[in-house]
Amino acid sequence: MKVVVTSTGESLDSEIDPRFGRAAFFVLIDTETGEHRAVSNEVGREAGHGAGIQSAETVSGLGANMVLTGECGPKAEEALKRAGIPVRTKIQGCVADAVNALKTEISVGR
Fold first, then answer.
1. Predicted pLDDT at 51
2. Sheet holding 87-88, edge to edge
3. Quick one: pLDDT at residue 109?
4. Bridging pattern class, strands 25-30 and 36-40
5. What is the pTM of this model?
6. Are 36 and 29 in contact (CB under 8 A)?
7. How many CB atoms lie within 10 A of CB 55?
8. What's the CATH code, domain 2-109?
9. Which of 12, 19, 27, 52 sits between 20 and 30 A of 80, alpha carbons compared?
């Protein structure tokens, strides 16, 4: 599964950015291989308005299967839903911890 986590920095140790649309970075992580890369969300951060929708388009283009973030506005959430990408909000801590918690949840649910 490819998961996008909103992040304040480019590493797995970076804190979760609580804002989806204006997050500093999106960290794309393949939960099966552990491969990851950070993508700057410059478009969303600098948008006068519509940051959430523009960020949703970016995430969709990355091939994400899920988003983990602090908060997500209703328009962005709807755009992600239309793209078939579920969103989990109220995520806190660092990127690695959020992904590890998701992986544990998935493995327990099997």
1. 85
2. 36-40, 25-30, 2-7, 66-68, 87-88
3. 67
4. antiparallel
5. 0.92
6. yes
7. 30
8. 3.30.420.130
9. 12
The two structure tokens encoding residue 79: 């755009």
Asked if 44 and 22 touch (Cβ cutoff 8 Å), the reply is yes
33-72 pLDDT tens trace: 999 999 999 887 777 777 889 999 999 999 999 999 999 9
Domain boundaries, the chain: 2-109
Q: Is 42 helix (H, G, I), strand (E, B) or coil?
A: helix
Reply yes or no on whether the pLDDT at 110 is more than 60: no
Query: What is residue 2's predicted lDDT score, i.e. its pLDDT?
Result: 96
